[in-house]
């Protein structure tokens, strides 16, 4: 029985609202879950009056202890649930901006990627050569 932490959609058309749920992987999106962990409202809310920040926010309410429990027993979060759990601080972000930027730079400059691959191959060859030189065993004597 594979368990998934995923989003189950509620709300009207053009006004989504999601429950963060634990359910079996093969069940339908909006079927009855094993447990509801929290809610996620993707519609940006205006900041409360008197707050320091002027930015709108998307509301995430989550029972962090239960989410950690389900992850501990092997529930696999979906991509969107992984993103929400990383925002709350339960999981590490799956994609880091620096890694993506390095990949983009490598894709923009294919020669740099080739040079990097060549340098790593040369370093591995040097390392193998040194270890082979240290562990040199004299060849067996041949009978004539």
UniProtKB/TrEMBL annotation:
SUPFAM superfamilies: Ribosomal protein S16 (SSF54565). Gene3D superfamilies: 3.30.1320.10. GO terms for molecular function: structural constituent of ribosome. One of its GO terms (cellular component) is mitochondrial small ribosomal subunit. Residues 125-144 are annotated as: Disordered. Keywords: Ribonucleoprotein, Ribosomal protein. GO terms for biological process: mitochondrial translation. PROSITE patterns: RIBOSOMAL_S16 (PS00732). Belongs to the bacterial ribosomal protein bS16 family. PANTHER family: 30S RIBOSOMAL PROTEIN S16, SMALL RIBOSOMAL SUBUNIT PROTEIN BS16M. This is Ribosomal protein S16. It comes from Mytilinidion resinicola.
């Amino acid at each position: 029985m594979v368990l998934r932490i995923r989003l189950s959609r509620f709300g009207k058309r053009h006004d989504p609202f999601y429950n963060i749920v634990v359910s079996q992987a093969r069940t339908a999106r909006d079927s009855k879950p094993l447990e509801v962990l929290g809610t996620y409202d993707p519609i940006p809310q205006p900041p409360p009056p008197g707050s320091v920040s002027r930015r709108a926010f998307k509301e995430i309410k989550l029972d962090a202890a239960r989410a950690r429990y389900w992850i501990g027993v092997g529930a696999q979060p979906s991509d969107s649930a992984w993103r929400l759990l990383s925002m709350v601080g339960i999981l590490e972000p799956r994609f880091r901006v620096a890694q993506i930027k390095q990949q983009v730079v490598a894709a923009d400059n294919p020669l740099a990627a080739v040079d990097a691959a060549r340098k790593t191959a040369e370093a591995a060859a040097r390392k193998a050569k040194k270890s082979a030189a240290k562990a040199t065993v004299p060849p067996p004597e041949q009978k004539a």
